[in-house]
Design goal:
Length: 602
């Protein structure tokens, strides 16, 4: 529905005075058209017109502002919100250092293909080149140029008449390219009155994407699936919409399933066909299955085969056994040697494949092979995995201080099945990728995969990402507990964002792996026989740190401390909780693939 602009009361002056809608109100009108609920940022003088518009919007229950504590945190929050809703994430900052502080979060979203609208302010056009306070025009610190390499669209709005068309173009590009876009808007342009009664573009209509299907290619894919004697699916993060279809198909054709670290959480760890994770902090069984000479076809779906997702670009993986199925051509460029490339809407492709297989199995049993169906296994300790873990003894260890492996084992046991986990950069995501396996006995059937039950930022790998992103996820998913697994280094870097969760009473559980070190650096230095330098941190009582900010906090030193928590109460209360987990500092995370790559660099 189009938003109709009305004459607005001047809240800064006489209550009877009225002002025309400004271009800041136009921006908010388009966000409302898209169903966007929040704008994450920090106010300042140059971006004041946008915040005035947000104040007016909030009074009529439209999009509202969420004030972060640092602009990087605002970008991380917008990332978490977008990833868990499928909507546009929006973050903003004032000119100069406000804009430059956004860069790390925006770059992270760029690498992780998260659609963000990034709005930065500029001083008034008339001040360009005159040394204005925090000037960041082309004659100062050129913000448009700085954002050019970490966005898909970065432009200065140099005249009010440009704003609407550039805004629409930017938003469409954010969804087309799946990543951030940037508008730099001078103070006087954003403050200029907007005289038209309604927005001119219907963005939901323009953003509608019809399902893409190449019938001939899908037919060829179908026969490849039937002909394969030992098929394996390798799923990446972009396979989310088709993951349930593929898991059902795998059971029918006796295919194994492996995911990249980015695709963790799309398939239950206890699915009978699942063989673990390939690549960074992955599992031996996944490597054994994929690299078996008996496997004649590997169906790669929705996977960006980067260093961490491809076992360090293992040449044995990159061969003509691959059939690569993608919705984005960008991923296909990583596998030029593949026997077949298929591009289209993944959900539509596998809906067609699955329905045809079911039909042919009933009508033409001679055509469709009689495959062995896996049966779900269950033991005394719950469902059974088809893959083993490194150091299984530490996974069940009762030692104090608590082993990180045991911590990852217990988190899904003490928190409910609808919990969403985010793991921060460093040892945190290494431990979580290998050892954190949530209980999910649903082996087939449709479900919502937005955000998945597990997320980590693996390519750009920004420390502190999970802290902000968990808060954004909590705004997006207010009924689901959000668990942020982070390290003491990340907490010292970005822990102030916890106060946003306090302010808005969000159910976020911050699990801090406290070992007084940058764990991944410390253990990486040891594994590569580098100098032991710069990796150690002072001892910090993060429970006291949290309580000082109004957060409920617990110190966890042993498995018993963890198991005695009243997690039902923690998940029911309004507001965050912090667990200061004093982990065994001598336990090395499973980062061997990464350290081997570093050793080979010359």
């Amino acid at each position: 529905m189009d938003t109709v602009f009305k004459v607005l009361p001047d809240t800064e002056g006489d209550a009877h005075n009225e002002v025309l809608p400004e271009h800041g109100d136009l921006i908010i009108a388009y966000l409302e058209q898209l169903g966007v609920e929040y704008v994450f940022g920090i106010p300042g003088g140059a971006i004041e017109p946008l915040y005035n518009a947000l104040a007016r919007s909030e009074r009529r229950a439209g999009p509202r502002s969420i004030t972060a504590r640092h602009e990087t945190g605002a970008a991380f929050m917008a990332d978490g919100y977008a990833s868990n809703t499928g909507k546009l994430g929006v973050c903003c900052a004032t000119t100069g250092p406000g804009a430059t502080n956004l860069l790390t979060g925006v770059a992270s979203a760029f690498e992780n293909k998260v659609p963000l609208l990034v709005i930065t302010a500029q001083t008034a056009l008339s001040t360009f080149g005159r040394g204005a306070f925090q000037e960041s025009s082309c004659t100062g610190i050129n913000i448009v140029a700085l954002f050019d390499n970490c966005t898909h669209y970065s432009t200065l709005v140099s005249h009010p008449a440009q704003l609407e068309s550039k805004l629409a173009s930017a938003i469409m590009k954010a969804f087309e390219a799946m990543g951030p876009v940037h508008l730099s808007i001078p103070l006087d342009v954003m403050r200029a009155p907007y005289l038209l009664p309604v927005p001119r573009f219907n963005l939901p209509h323009l953003l509608h994407k019809p399902a893409l299907l190449d019938v001939d290619a899908v037919n060829q894919l179908y026969w490849e699936l039937l002909a394969a004697k030992r098929p394996v699916f390798l799923l990446g993060e972009e396979a989310g919409g088709a993951a349930d279809l593929i898991s059902t198909l795998a059971l029918m054709i006796n295919a194994r399933i492996v995911t990249t670290p980015h695709g963790k959480g799309l398939i239950s760890a206890y699915h009978p066909s699942f063989s673990g994770i390939l690549g960074f902090s992955g599992h031996d069984e996944a490597r054994r299955v994929l690299f078996s000479p008996e496997v004649d076809r590997i169906f790669v779906v929705g996977a960006n085969l980067s260093e961490w997702a491809s076992n360090g670009w293992d040449p044995f993986l990159f061969n003509q056994r691959l059939i690569h199925v993608e919705s984005s051509a960008a991923n296909l460029r990583r596998t030029p040697m593949a026997a077949m490339h298929i591009k289209g809407t993944l959900e539509t492709i596998f809906e067609k494949i699955l329905s045809r297989y079911k039909r042919d199995a009933m009508e033409s049993p001679r055509v469709v092979p009689d495959r062995l169906h896996h049966a779900a296994k269950s033991g005394e300790d719950g469902p059974v995995r088809n893959f083993s873990l490194d150091q299984e003894q530490n996974y069940c260890s009762n030692a104090t201080p608590i082993k990180p492996q045991r911590l990852m084992r217990e988190l899904p046991r003490i928190f409910p099945p609808n919990t969403r986990y985010l793991a921060d950069t460093g040892a945190s995501f290494s431990w979580a990728i290998h050892y954190l396996h949530a209980y999910d006995r649903r082996f087939s059937g449709r479900r919502d995969y937005r955000g998945g039950w597990f997320r980590a930022t693996l390519e750009f790998a920004s420390m502190g990402w999970a802290i902000g992103s968990a808060i954004g996820a909590a705004f997006a998913r207010p009924d689901d507990p959000i668990v942020c697994i982070t390290g003491d280094g990340s907490m010292l870097m970005s822990g102030q964002e916890i106060t946003v969760a306090v302010e808005h009473q969000l159910t976020v559980i911050f699990v801090v792996l406290n070992d007084s070190a940058y764990g991944m650096v410390k253990h990486g230095q040891r594994m590569t026989r580098a100098e032991q330098i710069g990796a150690f941190l002072p001892k910090v009582d993060f429970a006291a740190f949290a309580r000082a900010m109004g957060v409920t906090a617990h110190v966890i030193e042993s498995p018993q401390d963890l198991l005695h928590l009243d997690t039902r109460y923690i998940c029911a209360q309004r507001g965050p909780t912090l667990l200061d987990v004093r982990i065994d500092p001598d336990e090395a995370p499973p980062i061997g693939m990464r350290t081997n790559t570093l050793k080979q660099a010359i």
